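## tool: complex_structure
## caller: assistant
## args:
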Amino acid sequence: MTEQELRSIIFTELRKVAPECDPASLTPDENIREAFDIDSYSFLRVLVGLNKQTGVDIPESDYGKLSTLATMTHYLMAHLP
Amino acid sequence: MGEFRMPSLGADMETGTLVEWLVMPGQPVQRGDIVALVETQKGLFEIEAFEDGIMGEPLIQAGQTVPVGTVLAMISSGTEAAARMDVQAEPTAAAESPVEGPTVPQTAAPLTDLPGRIACSPSARRLALELGVDLATVRGTGPGGAIQRSDIEEAAKAKESGAAPVVATEKPVAAAPIQPMDAATSAARMRQAIAAAVSRSNREIPHYYLETEIDLSRPLQWLAAENQKRSIQERVLPVALLLKAVAKALRDVPELNGYWLEDGLQVKAEIHIGFAVALRQGGLISPALHQVDKLSIGELMQAMADLIERTRVGRLRGSEVTDATVSVTNLGDRGVKTVYGVIYPPQVALVGFGRIAERPWAEGGMLGVRPCVTATLAADHRATDGHQGALFLEALNRHLQLPEEL
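## result:
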């Protein structure tokens, strides 16, 4: 999986919980939840979706490592099966 | 024999629009079956039958807006049904000649052919509504020309590709076209509905407020260990623990679980927690999680997920917005420390949770840092006094400190 493909998966999952937001407008270091007003339940849904699409297992203790676009992409790339 | 009425889906609702009948006259229904869709200021709701019986002819047609309490249809017990059908069909004859015993077999089939009705399964009707397909333009391929889900899907495809509708059958009298509300109107109406409810609350309910700080070290440690055993889909959020602890504390202090009606407190045996869900387009709905005290933490999390999903896509049942016996609001996700709630009448209490955050905690002569949450209680002073409120918050803390028993 290329970084480009992964980015598109992330955008798709974000649009599912925040349909009115444009993920392309995010800067790499912006906190995604704050930028798009995503609550903890919806954020869990994003992570569940990313797990399904990428196969990366994300333990709860790592949730904090996926808070920005840059760290999320980095984490998932590093853990791709 | 029962009257199926326009339900009151909240203290603020005066009228409702019958959007669609999902059950046909003559069809047997069971208590809890979804028989109609109703639109209110707060959106579209599925309305359930309250007893077993046979669905009578609709007295109110789709598209009509009527006051709360209006009889929409009769639901007859099996033996009465046939007689009622005769009365509906030929009112003058029935008035003169005594109605004889049930002679019509209790099957739905012959009754679906009534003029002006389109034979169509409830789930297909539902789909048609979702896809914006007018049933009158769909040709049914099911038994007796009944419209099936596949027919609706075909029609929707044809519509999307710009092709003309397959075949226009006779236009029914009953099916008024449903105009979906545009987002601005729907948001404005939602605002009005909330305004009506909170104004009434502030006008009528003498609120009192209590707050306490709860150390969440133990429950969160327990939850982290629990979540390690679970797949990501099955993981539980801390809010599920908070909700379960609220339910258990309400069992200890039942006076906070119920309604203030006709100058008296009606304590409810079942604990249905109205859980405030913010909608992305603005506004909020507090649908009920049923019998929270009887659910395991995993079940509660699933029920919550299901309820949040359905709230956000507008697929709630009428009973879910009417039967909450108490409410919980959780503003922790927004960084808020303390929330002082507005009680949703006729309920008598609202429990609020702020953000879970590390705070200084003094205990046993030592100062430490612990994950904490501020829990608040807004309660109706007509129904309870501060003493009971304090007992509730104490019980809430006690249950949270024993997470393995939640």
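## assistant note: Chain A touches chain B at residues 18-20, 33, 37, 39-41, 44, 47-48, 51, 57-61 (CB under 8 Å). Chain A has a mean pLDDT of 92. Handing back to user.
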